Amino acid sequence: MPTTHAITDPRYARQLVLRGFGPAAQTSLHDARVLVIGVGGLGSPAASYLAAAGVGTITLVDTDVVDLTNLHRQLLYTTPDVGRPKLAVARERLQAINPHVVVQTHDTRLTAANARALVDGHDVVIDATDNFPARYALNEACLALRVPFVYGSVARFDGQVSVFAGANGSTPGPCYRCLFPVMPEPGTVPTCAEEGVLGVVPGIIGLLQATEAIKLIAGIGTPLVGQLLLVDLLSHDHQRITVARRLDCPACGDAPLLTPSPMSIQHLSAVEVAALLAGADAPTIIDVREPWEYDIAHLPVSTSIPLNTLPTRAPELDPAHSYALLCHHGMRSEMAANWLLQHGFTRLINIDGGIDAWSTDVDTTVPRY
Ligand SMILES: [Zn+2]
Protein backbone atom coordinates (compact mmCIF):
# COMPACT_ATOMS: atom_id res chain seq x y z
CA MET A 1 0.00 0.00 0.00
CA PRO A 2 1.14 3.57 -0.55
CA THR A 3 2.59 5.16 2.55
CA THR A 4 1.97 8.64 3.90
CA HIS A 5 5.42 9.38 2.56
CA ALA A 6 3.81 9.26 -0.87
CA ILE A 7 1.87 12.47 -0.25
CA THR A 8 4.98 14.53 0.43
CA ASP A 9 7.10 12.88 -2.25
CA PRO A 10 8.96 15.50 -4.33
CA ARG A 11 7.23 14.24 -7.46
CA TYR A 12 4.08 16.03 -6.23
CA ALA A 13 5.85 19.31 -5.36
CA ARG A 14 4.16 21.31 -8.11
CA GLN A 15 0.74 20.05 -7.06
CA LEU A 16 1.41 20.68 -3.36
CA VAL A 17 2.18 24.37 -3.99
CA LEU A 18 -0.66 24.72 -6.48
CA ARG A 19 -3.24 27.17 -5.15
CA GLY A 20 -6.68 25.55 -5.27
CA PHE A 21 -5.12 22.10 -4.97
CA GLY A 22 -2.43 21.56 -2.32
CA PRO A 23 -1.96 18.84 0.33
CA ALA A 24 -5.68 18.22 0.96
CA ALA A 25 -6.35 17.42 -2.68
CA GLN A 26 -3.13 15.41 -2.88
CA THR A 27 -4.31 13.34 0.09
CA SER A 28 -7.65 12.76 -1.64
CA LEU A 29 -5.78 11.44 -4.70
CA HIS A 30 -3.65 9.22 -2.47
CA ASP A 31 -6.75 7.72 -0.86
CA ALA A 32 -8.63 7.26 -4.14
CA ARG A 33 -9.29 4.09 -6.11
CA VAL A 34 -9.85 4.53 -9.85
CA LEU A 35 -11.02 1.78 -12.19
CA VAL A 36 -9.84 2.04 -15.80
CA ILE A 37 -11.85 -0.14 -18.22
CA GLY A 38 -9.58 -0.76 -21.20
CA VAL A 39 -5.89 0.14 -21.40
CA GLY A 40 -5.89 1.16 -25.05
CA GLY A 41 -6.01 4.55 -26.75
CA LEU A 42 -7.91 6.29 -23.94
CA GLY A 43 -6.91 4.19 -20.94
CA SER A 44 -3.18 4.39 -21.70
CA PRO A 45 -2.83 8.20 -21.35
CA ALA A 46 -5.48 8.39 -18.61
CA ALA A 47 -3.80 5.75 -16.44
CA SER A 48 -0.32 7.23 -17.00
CA TYR A 49 -1.33 10.68 -15.78
CA LEU A 50 -3.44 9.35 -12.92
CA ALA A 51 -0.44 7.35 -11.72
CA ALA A 52 1.86 10.35 -12.10
CA ALA A 53 -0.61 12.58 -10.24
CA GLY A 54 -0.58 10.21 -7.25
CA VAL A 55 -3.87 8.30 -7.36
CA GLY A 56 -3.38 5.65 -4.66
CA THR A 57 -4.91 2.63 -6.40
CA ILE A 58 -5.48 2.13 -10.10
CA THR A 59 -7.34 -0.98 -11.28
CA LEU A 60 -6.91 -1.96 -14.92
CA VAL A 61 -9.26 -4.23 -16.89
CA ASP A 62 -8.15 -5.53 -20.30
CA THR A 63 -7.52 -8.77 -22.21
CA ASP A 64 -5.55 -7.54 -25.23
CA VAL A 65 -1.94 -7.98 -26.19
CA VAL A 66 0.11 -5.10 -27.57
CA ASP A 67 -0.16 -4.83 -31.36
CA LEU A 68 2.03 -2.81 -33.70
CA THR A 69 -1.05 -0.87 -34.89
CA ASN A 70 -1.60 0.36 -31.29
CA LEU A 71 1.68 2.20 -30.99
CA HIS A 72 0.76 5.48 -32.70
CA ARG A 73 -1.65 6.29 -29.88
CA GLN A 74 -0.98 3.99 -26.88
CA LEU A 75 2.27 5.44 -25.56
CA LEU A 76 2.28 3.23 -22.49
CA TYR A 77 3.64 0.57 -24.89
CA THR A 78 6.77 0.47 -27.01
CA THR A 79 7.93 -1.59 -29.98
CA PRO A 80 9.60 -4.35 -27.90
CA ASP A 81 6.28 -4.84 -26.06
CA VAL A 82 4.46 -6.07 -29.17
CA GLY A 83 2.87 -9.43 -28.39
CA ARG A 84 2.95 -8.95 -24.59
CA PRO A 85 -0.24 -8.65 -22.52
CA LYS A 86 -1.18 -4.99 -22.10
CA LEU A 87 -1.94 -5.52 -18.40
CA ALA A 88 1.56 -6.75 -17.61
CA VAL A 89 3.27 -3.95 -19.54
CA ALA A 90 0.91 -1.30 -18.19
CA ARG A 91 1.54 -2.37 -14.60
CA GLU A 92 5.31 -2.19 -15.07
CA ARG A 93 5.15 1.25 -16.69
CA LEU A 94 2.71 2.75 -14.19
CA GLN A 95 4.78 1.53 -11.26
CA ALA A 96 7.91 2.87 -12.95
CA ILE A 97 6.18 6.24 -13.34
CA ASN A 98 5.15 6.17 -9.68
CA PRO A 99 6.12 3.34 -7.30
CA HIS A 100 3.72 4.64 -4.66
CA VAL A 101 0.72 3.62 -6.76
CA VAL A 102 -0.92 0.24 -6.20
CA VAL A 103 -1.79 -1.21 -9.61
CA GLN A 104 -4.39 -3.97 -9.67
CA THR A 105 -5.23 -5.89 -12.86
CA HIS A 106 -8.15 -7.99 -14.09
CA ASP A 107 -7.55 -10.06 -17.22
CA THR A 108 -11.20 -10.08 -18.25
CA ARG A 109 -13.75 -8.27 -20.39
CA LEU A 110 -16.34 -6.17 -18.57
CA THR A 111 -19.79 -7.73 -19.02
CA ALA A 112 -23.21 -7.38 -17.42
CA ALA A 113 -22.31 -10.40 -15.27
CA ASN A 114 -19.11 -8.97 -13.74
CA ALA A 115 -19.59 -5.19 -14.03
CA ARG A 116 -20.73 -4.65 -10.46
CA ALA A 117 -17.99 -6.79 -8.97
CA LEU A 118 -15.40 -4.81 -10.95
CA VAL A 119 -16.82 -1.36 -10.13
CA ASP A 120 -17.44 -2.04 -6.44
CA GLY A 121 -14.94 -0.38 -4.13
CA HIS A 122 -13.84 2.29 -6.60
CA ASP A 123 -14.43 6.03 -6.35
CA VAL A 124 -14.39 6.85 -10.06
CA VAL A 125 -14.42 4.80 -13.26
CA ILE A 126 -12.68 5.78 -16.48
CA ASP A 127 -14.69 4.36 -19.37
CA ALA A 128 -12.02 3.64 -21.96
CA THR A 129 -13.87 0.77 -23.61
CA ASP A 130 -14.35 0.41 -27.33
CA ASN A 131 -17.55 -1.60 -27.26
CA PHE A 132 -21.14 -0.69 -26.53
CA PRO A 133 -22.29 -3.71 -24.48
CA ALA A 134 -19.49 -3.02 -21.99
CA ARG A 135 -20.35 0.68 -21.79
CA TYR A 136 -24.05 0.01 -21.17
CA ALA A 137 -23.21 -2.64 -18.56
CA LEU A 138 -20.83 -0.17 -16.92
CA ASN A 139 -23.55 2.49 -16.83
CA GLU A 140 -25.96 0.14 -15.08
CA ALA A 141 -23.32 -1.00 -12.56
CA CYS A 142 -22.21 2.57 -11.80
CA LEU A 143 -25.83 3.66 -11.26
CA ALA A 144 -26.46 0.75 -8.89
CA LEU A 145 -23.29 1.38 -6.89
CA ARG A 146 -23.47 5.20 -7.14
CA VAL A 147 -20.02 5.50 -8.65
CA PRO A 148 -19.49 8.24 -11.27
CA PHE A 149 -17.94 7.26 -14.57
CA VAL A 150 -16.01 9.44 -16.94
CA TYR A 151 -17.02 8.66 -20.49
CA GLY A 152 -14.78 9.22 -23.48
CA SER A 153 -14.89 8.19 -27.11
CA VAL A 154 -12.95 9.03 -30.24
CA ALA A 155 -13.23 8.68 -34.00
CA ARG A 156 -11.09 10.10 -36.79
CA PHE A 157 -10.23 13.70 -35.67
CA ASP A 158 -13.01 14.05 -33.08
CA GLY A 159 -13.68 13.06 -29.51
CA GLN A 160 -16.23 13.48 -26.76
CA VAL A 161 -16.15 13.47 -22.97
CA SER A 162 -18.76 13.54 -20.23
CA VAL A 163 -19.27 12.52 -16.62
CA PHE A 164 -22.22 10.28 -15.83
CA ALA A 165 -22.96 10.35 -12.15
CA GLY A 166 -26.60 9.22 -12.17
CA ALA A 167 -29.52 10.83 -10.41
CA ASN A 168 -28.60 9.20 -7.11
CA GLY A 169 -24.88 9.80 -7.16
CA SER A 170 -22.96 12.16 -4.94
CA THR A 171 -22.85 14.50 -7.96
CA PRO A 172 -26.38 14.16 -9.39
CA GLY A 173 -26.77 14.14 -13.13
CA PRO A 174 -27.95 12.13 -16.11
CA CYS A 175 -26.65 8.69 -16.99
CA TYR A 176 -25.25 7.35 -20.26
CA ARG A 177 -28.65 5.96 -21.25
CA CYS A 178 -30.22 9.40 -20.78
CA LEU A 179 -27.97 10.48 -23.66
CA PHE A 180 -28.08 7.28 -25.73
CA PRO A 181 -31.19 5.33 -24.60
CA VAL A 182 -30.80 2.46 -27.04
CA MET A 183 -27.66 0.46 -27.68
CA PRO A 184 -26.65 0.65 -31.37
CA GLU A 185 -26.96 -2.54 -33.37
CA PRO A 186 -23.62 -4.28 -33.89
CA GLY A 187 -21.90 -2.96 -37.00
CA THR A 188 -23.87 0.31 -37.24
CA VAL A 189 -21.17 2.45 -35.58
CA PRO A 190 -17.73 2.11 -37.19
CA THR A 191 -14.82 1.36 -34.88
CA CYS A 192 -11.41 3.03 -34.80
CA ALA A 193 -10.07 -0.06 -36.54
CA GLU A 194 -12.54 0.51 -39.38
CA GLU A 195 -12.38 4.27 -39.88
CA GLY A 196 -9.10 5.15 -38.23
CA VAL A 197 -8.14 7.79 -35.68
CA LEU A 198 -5.36 10.34 -35.54
CA GLY A 199 -3.00 9.22 -32.77
CA VAL A 200 -3.16 12.43 -30.74
CA VAL A 201 -6.98 12.34 -30.51
CA PRO A 202 -7.31 9.55 -27.89
CA GLY A 203 -4.29 11.08 -26.14
CA ILE A 204 -6.15 14.36 -25.68
CA ILE A 205 -9.49 12.78 -24.84
CA GLY A 206 -7.88 10.30 -22.40
CA LEU A 207 -6.20 13.21 -20.63
CA LEU A 208 -9.49 15.09 -20.45
CA GLN A 209 -10.95 11.97 -18.80
CA ALA A 210 -8.05 11.86 -16.33
CA THR A 211 -8.66 15.57 -15.63
CA GLU A 212 -12.34 14.94 -14.87
CA ALA A 213 -11.43 12.03 -12.58
CA ILE A 214 -8.96 14.22 -10.66
CA LYS A 215 -11.59 16.99 -10.37
CA LEU A 216 -14.16 14.55 -8.99
CA ILE A 217 -11.70 13.05 -6.49
CA ALA A 218 -10.21 16.35 -5.35
CA GLY A 219 -13.54 18.19 -5.33
CA ILE A 220 -12.26 21.00 -7.52
CA GLY A 221 -13.77 22.82 -10.46
CA THR A 222 -16.97 21.86 -12.22
CA PRO A 223 -17.02 18.31 -13.57
CA LEU A 224 -18.74 17.65 -16.89
CA VAL A 225 -21.84 16.29 -15.16
CA GLY A 226 -24.81 16.89 -17.45
CA GLN A 227 -22.47 18.27 -20.10
CA LEU A 228 -21.14 16.56 -23.21
CA LEU A 229 -17.91 18.10 -24.47
CA LEU A 230 -17.48 17.67 -28.22
CA VAL A 231 -13.91 18.18 -29.41
CA ASP A 232 -13.14 18.76 -33.11
CA LEU A 233 -9.37 18.84 -33.37
CA LEU A 234 -9.26 19.87 -37.03
CA SER A 235 -11.08 23.15 -36.44
CA HIS A 236 -10.79 23.47 -32.64
CA ASP A 237 -14.50 24.05 -32.55
CA HIS A 238 -15.09 22.70 -29.08
CA GLN A 239 -18.68 22.65 -27.89
CA ARG A 240 -20.36 21.81 -24.64
CA ILE A 241 -23.94 20.64 -24.92
CA THR A 242 -26.27 20.11 -22.00
CA VAL A 243 -27.46 16.58 -21.35
CA ALA A 244 -30.61 16.51 -19.25
CA ARG A 245 -31.65 13.63 -17.09
CA ARG A 246 -34.58 11.90 -18.78
CA LEU A 247 -37.47 11.06 -16.50
CA ASP A 248 -38.29 8.19 -18.88
CA CYS A 249 -34.70 6.91 -18.96
CA PRO A 250 -34.80 3.10 -19.02
CA ALA A 251 -31.89 2.96 -16.54
CA CYS A 252 -32.21 5.91 -14.12
CA GLY A 253 -35.70 7.31 -14.82
CA ASP A 254 -38.59 7.43 -12.41
CA ALA A 255 -39.78 3.99 -13.53
CA PRO A 256 -36.64 2.20 -14.67
CA LEU A 257 -37.37 -0.70 -16.98
CA LEU A 258 -34.05 -2.42 -16.49
CA THR A 259 -33.79 -4.79 -13.61
CA PRO A 260 -30.69 -3.93 -11.63
CA SER A 261 -29.18 -7.36 -12.02
CA PRO A 262 -30.02 -10.68 -13.63
CA MET A 263 -28.43 -12.39 -10.64
CA SER A 264 -30.30 -13.67 -7.64
CA ILE A 265 -29.80 -15.51 -4.39
CA GLN A 266 -30.07 -19.28 -4.33
CA HIS A 267 -32.24 -20.65 -1.51
CA LEU A 268 -31.06 -24.03 -0.31
CA SER A 269 -31.89 -26.23 2.67
CA ALA A 270 -29.31 -27.15 5.29
CA VAL A 271 -29.16 -30.68 3.83
CA GLU A 272 -28.47 -29.33 0.33
CA VAL A 273 -25.71 -27.03 1.55
CA ALA A 274 -24.13 -29.84 3.59
CA ALA A 275 -23.96 -31.89 0.37
CA LEU A 276 -22.26 -28.98 -1.44
CA LEU A 277 -19.56 -28.81 1.24
CA ALA A 278 -18.25 -32.20 0.12
CA GLY A 279 -17.79 -30.99 -3.48
CA ALA A 280 -14.78 -29.43 -5.16
CA ASP A 281 -16.35 -25.95 -5.45
CA ALA A 282 -17.70 -25.78 -1.91
CA PRO A 283 -19.15 -22.48 -0.70
CA THR A 284 -17.71 -20.79 2.36
CA ILE A 285 -20.25 -20.55 5.15
CA ILE A 286 -20.58 -17.05 6.61
CA ASP A 287 -22.41 -16.99 9.95
CA VAL A 288 -24.00 -13.54 10.40
CA ARG A 289 -25.37 -14.08 13.93
CA GLU A 290 -24.17 -12.14 16.95
CA PRO A 291 -20.98 -13.34 18.73
CA TRP A 292 -22.93 -14.57 21.78
CA GLU A 293 -25.07 -16.77 19.53
CA TYR A 294 -21.96 -18.05 17.80
CA ASP A 295 -20.57 -19.02 21.20
CA ILE A 296 -23.65 -21.11 21.97
CA ALA A 297 -23.52 -23.05 18.73
CA HIS A 298 -21.68 -22.86 15.45
CA LEU A 299 -20.55 -25.00 12.55
CA PRO A 300 -16.80 -25.73 12.67
CA VAL A 301 -16.49 -24.84 8.95
CA SER A 302 -18.10 -21.40 9.31
CA THR A 303 -16.68 -17.89 9.49
CA SER A 304 -18.29 -15.46 11.93
CA ILE A 305 -19.20 -12.07 10.42
CA PRO A 306 -22.06 -10.53 12.45
CA LEU A 307 -24.60 -8.80 10.19
CA ASN A 308 -23.85 -5.27 11.40
CA THR A 309 -20.13 -5.70 10.69
CA LEU A 310 -20.66 -6.94 7.12
CA PRO A 311 -20.05 -3.58 5.35
CA THR A 312 -16.67 -3.16 7.05
CA ARG A 313 -15.63 -6.79 6.70
CA ALA A 314 -16.84 -7.45 3.13
CA PRO A 315 -13.42 -6.44 1.70
CA GLU A 316 -12.05 -9.63 3.33
CA LEU A 317 -14.27 -11.61 0.96
CA ASP A 318 -13.78 -12.42 -2.73
CA PRO A 319 -16.78 -11.31 -4.86
CA ALA A 320 -16.14 -14.16 -7.31
CA HIS A 321 -16.25 -16.85 -4.60
CA SER A 322 -19.38 -18.75 -3.53
CA TYR A 323 -20.77 -17.94 -0.06
CA ALA A 324 -23.55 -19.62 1.92
CA LEU A 325 -25.09 -17.26 4.49
CA LEU A 326 -26.21 -18.67 7.82
CA CYS A 327 -28.12 -17.24 10.79
CA HIS A 328 -30.56 -18.64 13.38
CA HIS A 329 -33.62 -19.19 11.16
CA GLY A 330 -32.68 -17.75 7.73
CA MET A 331 -33.95 -14.14 7.95
CA ARG A 332 -30.76 -12.21 8.81
CA SER A 333 -28.76 -14.37 6.43
CA GLU A 334 -31.11 -13.35 3.63
CA MET A 335 -30.54 -9.66 4.49
CA ALA A 336 -26.79 -10.30 4.38
CA ALA A 337 -27.06 -12.10 1.03
CA ASN A 338 -29.08 -9.18 -0.41
CA TRP A 339 -26.47 -6.70 0.78
CA LEU A 340 -23.67 -8.74 -0.80
CA LEU A 341 -25.66 -9.03 -4.04
CA GLN A 342 -25.94 -5.25 -4.16
CA HIS A 343 -22.18 -5.01 -3.68
CA GLY A 344 -20.98 -7.11 -6.55
CA PHE A 345 -21.08 -10.63 -5.14
CA THR A 346 -22.59 -13.05 -7.63
CA ARG A 347 -22.62 -16.53 -6.04
CA LEU A 348 -24.77 -16.35 -2.95
CA ILE A 349 -26.73 -19.03 -1.13
CA ASN A 350 -29.16 -18.48 1.72
CA ILE A 351 -29.31 -21.44 4.09
CA ASP A 352 -33.07 -21.57 4.63
CA GLY A 353 -34.00 -22.47 8.20
CA GLY A 354 -30.59 -21.41 9.49
CA ILE A 355 -28.54 -23.24 12.10
CA ASP A 356 -31.77 -24.39 13.68
CA ALA A 357 -32.55 -26.51 10.60
CA TRP A 358 -28.91 -27.61 10.46
CA SER A 359 -29.09 -29.02 13.99
CA THR A 360 -32.34 -30.85 13.18
CA ASP A 361 -31.57 -32.15 9.69
CA VAL A 362 -27.79 -32.39 9.33
CA ASP A 363 -25.94 -32.59 12.64
CA THR A 364 -27.89 -33.20 15.85
CA THR A 365 -24.77 -32.49 17.96
CA VAL A 366 -25.10 -28.76 17.11
CA PRO A 367 -26.86 -27.30 20.17
CA ARG A 368 -30.27 -25.67 19.66
CA TYR A 369 -31.30 -22.47 21.39
ZN1 LIG B 1 -30.46 7.76 -17.31
Any overview of this molecule?
This protein is α/β, with parallel strands linked by helices. It has 2 domains: 4-242, Rossmann fold; 266-361, Rhodanese-like domain (Oxidized Rhodanese, domain 1, 3-Layer(aba) Sandwich), CATH 3.40.250.10. 33% of the residues lie in helices and 18% in strands. It is built from 14 helices and 13 strands. An 8-stranded mixed beta sheet has the order 3-2-1-4-5-6-7-8, sandwiched between helices. A 5-stranded parallel beta sheet has the order 9-13-12-10-11, sandwiched between helices. α3 (43-53) runs parallel beside α4 (86-97) and α3 packs across α9. The longest helix is centred in the middle third of the chain and has 19 residues, at 200-218. The chain is elongated, with a radius of gyration of 23 Å. The protein starts with 12 loop residues before the first helix and ends in an 8-residue tail after the last helix. It binds zinc ion (ZN). The site of zinc ion has 8 residues, from α7.
Number of strands: 13
| CATH fold call of the largest domain | Rossmann fold
Counting structural domains, the number is 2
* Structural class label: alpha/beta
Corresponding CATH superfamily of the largest domain:
NAD(P)-binding Rossmann-like Domain
Average pLDDT score: 90
Helix content: 25-40%
Identify the CATH class of the largest domain: Alpha Beta
Largest sheet: 8 strands, mixed
The topology string of helices and strands comes to HHEHEHEHEHEEHHHEEEHEHEHEHEH
Distance between the termini: 44 Å
Tally of alpha and pi helices: 14
Shape: elongated
Parts with pLDDT < 50 across at least 5 consecutive residues: none
**Largest sheet: spatial strand order:** 3-2-1-4-5-6-7-8
List the ions, cofactors and other small molecules found in this model: zinc ion
What oligomeric state do these chains adopt? single chain
